[in-house]
Amino acid sequence: MPKRFSPDEYAAGVLSGNRVLLSRAITLMESTLPSDQTLAHEVMEKMLPHAGKSVRVGITGVPGVGKSTFIEAFGNYLLEEHGKNLAVLAIDPTSQRTGGSILGDKTRMETLSANPKAYIRPSPAGKTLGGVARSTRESILLCEAAGFDVIFVETVGVGQSETAVHEMVDFFLLLMLAGAGDELQGIKKGIMEMADAIAITKADGPNLPAATSAQAEYKGALHLFPLGASKWSPRVTVCSAFEKSGLAPIWDSVMEYVQLTQGNGYFQQRRQEQNLHWLRHSIRQQLEERFYQHPAVKAQWEDVSGQVTQGQKSPFAAAAELFRLLP
Amino acid sequence: MPKRFSPDEYAAGVLSGNRVLLSRAITLMESTLPSDQTLAHEVMEKMLPHAGKSVRVGITGVPGVGKSTFIEAFGNYLLEEHGKNLAVLAIDPTSQRTGGSILGDKTRMETLSANPKAYIRPSPAGKTLGGVARSTRESILLCEAAGFDVIFVETVGVGQSETAVHEMVDFFLLLMLAGAGDELQGIKKGIMEMADAIAITKADGPNLPAATSAQAEYKGALHLFPLGASKWSPRVTVCSAFEKSGLAPIWDSVMEYVQLTQGNGYFQQRRQEQNLHWLRHSIRQQLEERFYQHPAVKAQWEDVSGQVTQGQKSPFAAAAELFRLLP
Q1: What is the domain count for chain A?
Q2: What is its EC number (chains A, B) (predicted)?
Q3: CATH, residue B15
Q4: Does A273 reside within a domain?
């Protein structure tokens, strides 16, 4: 059992910006021990009044798009040019099928991780998406309480985690490579429609013409989508982490988005909806865990679900049958 | 209490293609009376071995796109040129915000509803999406058992029902209007990415150039999306229900899709996944209904969810608090 502090010790440490306490508090949020969860809730209640004052940006893209190089360049730009305090929360994919490890990437964000105004925290590969979602969401709030005014939440754009991240950030940035074709195959359907901005990376040297032409194509494509409730038209830009070019327009987009949506009320409304979303999500998750872990259900599941899959039993009749097994 | 038959009477009637018994069986599936649900499950178990042998096509588009006119023209084309037996299941939107009523539209499909090889069934506005989904899905199976080899499931492309319909059909057809702009605003984000084909309607007379140019735009846009697991590239065509033109290419797309996906195994695999999806969906729905209808939860819900929405309580702590209210 790792060392634990009192709720007041965690709270005081986080609020004073103490990195060690912040990291310990995040570790506490990630814990699945029942005793830790009670403590985590107590710490969180103390933090909530101090949270909420950041811009939360989700950043995603397939491996190979240059995500950590981009985050390092973009992060340094925000620290140097805008005087921001930046926290980067990286969700490690639970599946290993993509290869690239975010924990490995961390060491590549060398200048950023050495900067005292930046804080980089990889989430360990969680066993459940729900667990990752919960601890990441609470980590955002802790970082806000610790004084960070920009939060990046980074994912690999191939799994389910993007939808979860989309539900916890204000702005969703999708990194894409020019040259389309095979690289695109890795992006999950539906992710492009969540994007508030698309940035074509590696737009430098001989890649520049392809990047500019991809930019025009994506602009045309996004133009066909209807505006969402935010009334924001997604932007498409090109950038180069290597040349440190094209970073200002991306941050300008974020700021314009915030101004627009704070003006029309969407910003606050969406955060409130996100709060409610996570309440319902958490309830659903616990309900399903209780159901599928029930011994009577576990004993019958393989048999019943097999019959349903094969079309021998109606899903609705099968569900009713399983519910009859419960007290 | 409406007249009920025995499971064997329903089964024999449906299998012989008796329209009256088919309609009564669908009404039984739509019933929420507990006694009816037991009977419905028994009927369904008898029907399952006879179901599954149709092509299931979801058709959606915003009001004004000419959905019923299209379905009438396309349906008549299938009956006359391909000798098909067609069932049209129309999901009436639960919300009234779009105006147009599908029940009203039904009377507009005059020639189709007069044809003995076609069967048109509007689903009444359901109280829950889950209820609509259950009865529509069971209705598909009943129509298959009654010998219909093409099933259309029609929705208005503005609500949640499209995702549900997408999970019960083989092929998803999106109807769009040329002229983009405001008409597009009605289409919900994410629907375009579900489409296996987009048909630009009203491509006749002075509208033809705009329709052809919209076709090129959508082709370009869809090209940017990655192929899904089906390996199918979505098609974009133009058509006119008025001139009865452009209908053959749409049906060709459906047939090519079926051939491709039956060949690569995706067709059967997807139907099996859909079966499992509805089992899990049905379980989830019943779990949530039990939870949110529990008197202790109902008594606290407004208070707790309000605190969560306002950011005064963490969603995860609030969920835990609500669970402590339950036995």
Answers
A1: 3
A2: 3.6.5.-
A3: 1.20.5.170
A4: no
- One domain, residues B148 and B225: yes
d(Cα A49, Cα B185) in Å, to the nearest integer?
A: 38
Same domain, B125 and B202: yes
Residue B287: closest CA among chain A residues belongs to which residue? A287
Reported as a single tens digit per residue, the pLDDT across B108-154 is 688 898 899 999 998 765 555 556 778 899 999 999 999 999 999 99
Residue B101: pLDDT over 50: no
User: Would you say residue A272 lies in a domain?
Assistant: no
Looking at chain B, which residue has its C-alpha nearest residue A49? B312
Question: DSSP readout, B70-122?
Answer: HHHHHHHHHHHHH---EEEEEE--SS-TT---HHHHHTT-HHHHH-TTEEEEE
**In chain A, beta strands by DSSP E:** 55-61, 86-91, 118-123, 150-156, 171-177, 197-201, 235-238
Residue span of the structural domain in which B61 resides:
51-264
Q: Would the CB atoms of A275 and B48 count as touching at under 8 Å?
A: no
Chain A residues inside the 8 Å CB shell of B312? 48
Chain B residues close to A217, C-beta within 8 Å: 220, 224
- Shared domain for B187 and B292, answered yes or no, is no
- Choose between B162 and B282: higher pLDDT: B282
Sheet of B171-177, strands arranged across: B118-123, B86-91, B150-156, B55-61, B171-177, B197-201, B235-238
**Per the CB < 8 Å rule, is A287 touching B287?**
yes
Query: Residue B124: what are its φ and ψ, rounded to 5°?
Result: -65, 155
Distance of CA A179 to the CA centre of its chain: 26
Q: Name which of B48, B128, B283, B305 to mutate to probe chain A: the one with the most chain A Cβ atoms within 10 A of its Cβ.
A: B283
Tell me whether residue A82 is in a domain: yes
Top mean-pLDDT range of A164-173, A211-220, B95-104, B213-222: A164-173
From CA A268, how far away is CA B298, in angstroms rounded? 26
Structure token digits, residue B255: 């047939």
Could you tell me if A250 and A181 lie in one domain? yes
**pLDDT grade for A30, boundaries at 50, 70 and 90:** confident
Tell if the CB–CB gap between B272 and A309 is shorter than 8 Å. Answer: yes
The answer to whether A218 contacts B224, with C-beta atoms less than 8 Å apart, is yes
ipTM: 0.83
Shared domain check, B216 and B185: yes
The pLDDT assigned to A16 comes to 96
Let me know: does A187 contact A157? Beta carbons within 8 Å.
yes
CB contact under 8 A, B134 and A311: no
Q: What is the DSSP letter of A28?
A: H
